Amino acid sequence: MQPCSFPASDNVTTRGWGLAVPDFAQTVKSACFLLLVVLCAVAARGASAQEILQADGYKMAGDASRVRIIMQFDREPEVRWLLLRNPHRLVVDLPETAFRFDEAELEPRGMVTDVRHGNLESGASRVIVSMDTPFEVEHFEVVQNESSPGYRLVADIVASSEKAFEAALSDQIGTTGATQTTRKVDRLATPTKPETRKFTVVVDAGHGGIDSGAESSKGTLEKTITLAFALELKKRLDDTSRYDVYLTRDRDVFLRLDERVRIARQHEADLFISVHADTIRLKGISGATVYTVSDKASDAEAAAKAIRENLSDEIAGIEVEEQNQGVADILVDLIRRETHSFSMRFARSLVGELSNSIEMINNPHRFAGFRVLRAPDVPSVLLELGYLSNEADEVKLRDPKWRAKAIDSIVSAIDMFAAAKAGAGG
Fold this sequence. Notes:
It is a single chain. The chain is an alpha/beta fold. The radius of gyration is 32 Å and the shape is elongated. It is built from ten helices and 18 strands. Helix 4 crosses helix 10 and helix 8 crosses helix 10 (400-423).
């Protein structure tokens, strides 16, 4: 590169002050050149800034069994996602992104324990969502906003089992190591259960901890009765060596309703039984009842029962976020229908067996909108053992011999249900 110099012509004049000053034409040329350089640099920076993806918003809602995540972008992003373990994480990889998330929206809730975001090497950014449970990505897509500019990423994540999570990891490793947005039917596929796997039962002792449930006039607490019954039922099932049996709680602790559902799904339960003992104003009413889930209650008492049970979280001071999410795919709806059919089948068997050994209420199979029975892929029933508001029922509920008789009938119903499911291919 040649050094800059002025020609020895009259482009440079000498003033009386002894200073060399460029003439006016040369000054204008130099100024124009410098201005051009500055404008080019500014334009380059502007173009670079426009190329960076803008992440304008983050929303998250859900509970311990399901969460929906929505991220807003100024234009359609190229997205890849993958799974990581220890802890269980969903990783969303993006082009270089300017994040403008509201930090309050990133606070842990439901099954999500942490949300982090930031830039990696030049030209790449990442969002990491950590969970307190194994999970499946049920739905993941980028769609254009209907009523505003930009695009949104929508991810529906559901609690699952460790086995299903590891299967998804293996599939990920066996392909590209990461996953791009895929068709919903592919994302909803679940790994086949090994044939040697035992029929799995999750027994849920209703209430617990700060939520005592119903109470008799003599001070007997529902949470105490349900825990004793659940422990005895588990032992009886374990003694058969035919089942894998898990409890949602084995001591006096509070569990959210969605946490109970999550435990059932985490263990890939073939059956979920939630045990309760209620009170009612009409003290003459007694006997056991079997409930299944339905959006429409079978009767006013079933509706009132569901309302009382669904208030469990609020009694403990937990804010309940009602979800109004549409069904992601027709396959999900089919799974729910099949699950409901199995729940109804077991409920009928359970009513039949219990009727041979203990007193049942009139019309003993009822249904209502119980939140604890809403696992989409686990047949579930709520068993009301009796009424603590009825003195005769209270005596029975406190009697180990009566509980053992009821438990024998429940095991018989489970035996029939498990055999029928095995005969139907699971």
